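Notebook entry, structure prediction.
Reason for the run: the old model in the group folder had no record of what sequence produced it. Starting over properly, with the input documented here first.
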Amino acid sequence: MLEKIIKLKEQGLTIKQIAEKIESTEGKVKYAWSKYRKSLTENKAASTETTPVAKPKKKKAGVTVSAPKQNEIVPALTAVPSLERDAFGMATHYEDDIIHAIVQSPTAVYVYWELSELSRKMLETHYHASFDSFRKEMRIIDVTLRDYEKGEVNRSYQFELPEMTNTWFVRPLMPNTTYIIEWGIQTIDGDFLPVLRSKPVETPRDEPVVDGRFSEVVARWQYGEVEQPEWVEVLRPYSYFDRIR
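New structure, fully documented this time:
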């Protein structure tokens, strides 16, 4: 089961999609994947552990140096990887897989991402190629009033990113639209493999309107024509809309 999960995860599938593929529950898939990632981290940390070597007693200039006793527990020293820092002493990265999309205007979104060394090694091992040889790309997906987990999108496009880049201004975009940003690589088959995915972000309107884009779907939900709001995928779970129906 774990081998199937790893293979499907490397193809860019979500936990929910993997659970449907292997006919299992999301909880079991998430637990197996988390346990696998944790084992990789522990193995990497274990390989860097060192234990001080006990030295015999010796005398020097009248000072006696004692070696550890036979049953004395000597704590192991774990080597913590040092982070690269800039001229001000601030860390330039934190060895984590993250991507953030921040709305700047009705037509622009600022994107920042970071890929850990572990994820880079996994890509290199799977495709038998160096990370620098991959073509890095960004995909912009319009998911306004769509359920992206079910593969529903309005439209999408992607473009190549230059090397040594971890920030980008995406523009021009459409106002009053919900977007998801994906960062990934182009495989040897020419397909786009998403590696990082942002949370949905919505660009604001650029002009006043009487009826918004959500007016029709809100009306259907208020009158009981649908059981679940059709815009729920773009809002946080603790939405106040649950209290006003």
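Summary: The chain has three domains: 2-37, 98-202, 209-245.
The old model has been moved to the deprecated folder.
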